[in-house]
Amino acid sequence: MSRPHRSEPSSRGLIGQIIDHRWDYLYVLPALGVMMLVIAYPIYYTFYLSFFRTPPSLAMSEKIFNGFDNYATVLGSDSFQQVTWNTIVWTVWSTFFALILGLGAALVLNREFMGRGLLRGLLLIPFVISAVAASYIWRWIYHSDFGVLGAVLFDLGLIDGKLNLLDNIDMVLPSLIVVNVWKEFPFAMIMILAGLQTVPDQLLNAARVDGAGAFHRFWHVTLPHLKGVLIITVLLLFVQNLNHFIIPWIMTGGGPAGASDIWITQIYQIAFGRIRFGIASAYSVILFLVMVVIGYFYVKALTGDEDRQAH
Amino acid sequence: MLLKNAARQRNLKGIACALLTSSALVLPAPVAAQANKTGIDPETWTPEHVRSIAGKTTVDTAAECSKIVPLDYEGELDYWYVGPNEASPQLEHEMYEEFWAALAETYPNIEINAQNLGYNDMLNKLRTAALGNAAPDVARLPILWGSEFAAKRQLSELSPEDVGYDSDDFWPGAMKSVTLDGKTWGIPTNNETMAFIWNAGIFEEAGLDPDKAPDTWEEVVAYSKQIKEKTGKNGYGLVARVNAGNTPFRFMPMVWGEGGGALDEAADSPTYQETWIDSDGTRRAVQNYYDMYVRDKSVPVSALTNTQTENQDPFLANQLAMVIAHPSEYATMLDRASRATGSDKEAAMEVVNNMRYGKIPKGADRRAVVFGGSNVHIFNPDNIDGDLDMEAAKALICFMTGPEWSTKLAWVSSNPGNTRGFETEWMKERLDTIKFLDVSTSMLPSGIPFPPVAESPEIMNIIIPEMLQNALTEKMTVEEATADAERKIQSLLDGM
């Protein structure tokens, strides 16, 4: 059996290059096989199913081909506009506030002070706690009749009745965003903290010597160094929020009256509540395409950073 | 058909049905129609009647089941069910433990891999499992769910006769829930109706007669308002969460009572092809909810996210006056109160002592309640994981649907699906030890089953709660909300 060897760059054609790299392909084959099975096939099947009508009274084997009807149903439905708007509000504001809070916490934790380790540990708690457990806890904190938050505000004299957050169509989404930000800002904090530790002290000292104040040092030295980390963090948070299911589903189930329904909860409801796998698949494909666009920018941001470093 | 059925009834139903058939000509139309739905005459199926027939029969379950499957049969099967959970009374847990022990003693060579899944999780898991051909051999499902699997032919045909019982031993309404396209797809295990429960202490505080329940839904709205105004406490335990079985079980009795419906399930001869949601009756019911939640603010604000489980704490804390709940609610409250400590325990016990049970109020049209319960099914061999062990499945089902275990497994929370259970010594013991059981049992003849169609879970768990939320959040008017629901149901019936 010949030993695998490190392939040299070749000027041969595509087939030749594949032959040159045959051992490399062999090594990644098992991983590729698993990925095909658990990622590629479900994606293919979701695309396939999105062209079929699957009412609850029919077995899947009796599904009926209906072309692009499911896409038309999704895009033309009364709820699509509201759910899409909710998704945008949920994703953009969750990402924005988690980033701002994470940045602030990271700047604080980047300084040396007594108890820094303890504070860092405490701030990480929301991130490591189970999202399901956190959702139930917050549901009770917010509870419209017996919630802790309402009771505290009432005792302080700040409200004179019940605090209705989860059962109020205007307040429910902002309330859930608060929970989501609380849950994920430590992720942004850790990412940015790692980035802050790469900012060269010499540059900061030089800026200080040149008379730059704290804000100018941050704006002109620190922030440019964080640019790559911030872009990656924003993209990761954005994707995570777009796909975030647990908090809205457990806390409100998308209600009341659809006021906290976002794409992902809507897809779940259509698939498993209404047993319309065809329509849910069409919805998923639309979400998938949005994710592909975001993924493109994510990869571009990553490789762009590598390219900059290479030059 | 009714005459033919009545002639075949055993002692228990013989009394009731003979009266029914002879009185159908003279009974008022709604009563006769109601009797048609359940096979039992509401006028005769009283708490006294239920007590009078209990304890008349003895049963040997092992002997009955050995005629179907030999007791030394060796086999294995997977079984999923919605069983007792952390909110269930201790007694219910003990009954299930006894059941498994008795089954193992009777059929020592049948290995059963049983999974107790929560009500809110099981349906989706089962749907996914059946699609992936990984369903269990046998499953006991809430009454609403089976039709969907039957419509997709994911179940095997199964009738009481297959396990040695007579279909006439089961409530006709329950048999209807396992019948689709003229075939039988399961066997009822237990059937119950809910009851109206109130706190006599709060009633007294509010200046109401503590021992008199509201008789109509109109009175419920008025009582709820009076309680809120006089005591500051919530009157009625309204629930309107989407995707929770609690909501339709509490709302549909009001809809039917007021003369409405989702489909035409409340009609004398339902076709399940007509929608009654955008009707005066349904609008009256939604208006009642609106009046309590929006106009009077006499119910919990959290009704849109709450289920009945969340109402148990305020009820026990003397902060909520009226709820609709299972027959087991008294045992549950007693259990919770006995676990409290110090002054909390004293207060909770006082509430338990103040608990009163009554019939579900009536509306402008009738008194109605959801005919609930569970059915056991065998899955289609094509949809299960591995080979179906039909004999093992029949042994399990014979054991659980017989008069003995259909009574014991329903000890605190329901009633035997096999009506021979009403005649047993265990039923007598239940009636002697479980407070208010006779009241909830006497509501059975007023029960209306949810439509046995594949679309039922979506209609009851999603479309109707959404209709309520649209009205209660004032996103739509009552009229717009019912019209919107009508459009959704119609599109469902059109096969979209």
From TrEMBL, chain A:
It is found in: Cell membrane. CDD domains: TM_PBP2. The keyword Membrane applies. The keyword Flavoprotein does not apply. GO terms for biological process: transmembrane transport. Keywords: Cell membrane, Membrane, Transmembrane, Transmembrane helix, Transport. This is ABC transporter permease subunit. Belongs to the binding-protein-dependent transport system permease family. PANTHER family: BLL4140 PROTEIN, DIACETYLCHITOBIOSE UPTAKE SYSTEM PERMEASE PROTEIN DASB. It is a multi-pass membrane protein. PROSITE patterns: ABC_TM1.
From TrEMBL, chain B:
Residues 1-33 form the signal peptide. It is found in: Periplasm. It holds the Pfam family SBP_bac_1. Transmembrane segments: none annotated. Its main location: periplasm. One of its GO terms (cellular component) is periplasmic space. The keyword Cell division does not apply. Belongs to the bacterial solute-binding protein 1 family. It comes from Halovulum marinum. Keywords: Signal. This is Extracellular solute-binding protein. It comes from the Bacteria.
